Amino acid sequence: MGPMNPAAATTPDLSTGPSSPVQEAWALLRNLLFIERRRFLSAAAEYDLHPAQAGALMQLERDEGLPMHEIASLLACDSSNVTGIVDRLEARGLVTRRVSERDRRVKQIVPTELGLEVRDALRARMAQVPEGLGLLSAGDQRLLRDLLARALAASA
Amino acid sequence: MGPMNPAAATTPDLSTGPSSPVQEAWALLRNLLFIERRRFLSAAAEYDLHPAQAGALMQLERDEGLPMHEIASLLACDSSNVTGIVDRLEARGLVTRRVSERDRRVKQIVPTELGLEVRDALRARMAQVPEGLGLLSAGDQRLLRDLLARALAASA
DNA sequence: CTCAATAGTTGAGAATGGCAAATGTCTACA
DNA sequence: TGTAGACATTTGCCATTCTCAACTATTGAG
């Protein structure tokens, strides 16, 4: 994520024709995502991590670790970037490189204990539900979850 | 951070805890954000713009333009970044700097005709509704819009 | 008029991001 | 078996983003 990256615009209301309900819903969602980007940046900054470093760290799971090329794929960036990102995470004692036993070309990136703590703290910050959603009634919250689950199940 | 704090109330239990419907809904939404980021990156790349440049361009409106410090605020970055970003947009003929008449310190960044075309193309790409949402029934689409409208109205 | 605050720019230094080249390792195939 | 091609990672180069601190010009308040 980076860095991420600047994200969607605030709803511009393109003035080009009427918008359908689903388009309006999507415009609202983009607003939410826009706010989310700031949360991500400030969470990363709080732990003195650059957005890309935080993004990489958050992807790691405990046991196996992730090959660098998979991190690159998740972050949508070139593998050569991951080298530097992992270098810095490793220098701070947050991850270690471990050569894969099954394929000596690949290096599994495994979080250290410290790395797991930071990762979990970051995940917790991002898992915090935005204010607006929390204010919906319990029934509406369930409804929203069900709608989204249906929508994303259909696309996956 | 007691139970009275609404932010704390929506904080998920990191470790193995069961998640509430609203937390599940939010987790689904973050998936969407993830996908959305890639769309943004590829849309920007398609127009040979770096993400920050595309982000800035998409914020501009036709008539007044935006002061640079407002662009910085929208992009959540330092004003000094915006200097360079606008430099490159200007070099490519996408925007112009116009000194504000009301305050000669500020420069309004106004899109050129070409800039408007690119901006609209970018906005159109980002306005494209993700597959999953489009597969919902018409009724569900309206329901989703209404839920989100209610949630975001409450937070704004 | 003076002075603090604001808008933008500049410069230095770290980091990201893409591309091309190089190394070491695997795998398919003849 | 051996060899060619594919793959994972690293390195170097260069453009860009980003933060911080300093600087200029301008504004507005007292």
Notes on the structure:
The structure is a homodimer of 156-residue chains. In chain A, helix 1 (21-46) packs across helix 2 (51-59) and helix 2 packs across helix 5 (113-127). Chain A has a 3-stranded antiparallel beta sheet. In chain A, strand 2 (95-99) and strand 3 (107-111) form a beta hairpin. Chain A starts with 20 loop residues before the first helix and ends with a helix. Chain A has helices at residues 21-46, 51-59, 68-75, 79-91, 113-127, 131-134, 138-155, and strands at 66-67, 95-99, 107-111. The relative contact order of chain A is 0.12. With 156 residues, chain A is mainly α. The first copy, chain A, is 60% helix and 8% strand. The interface between A and B is large, with 62 and 67 residues. Chain A binds a DNA duplex (30 and 30 nucleotides) through helix 2 and helix 4.
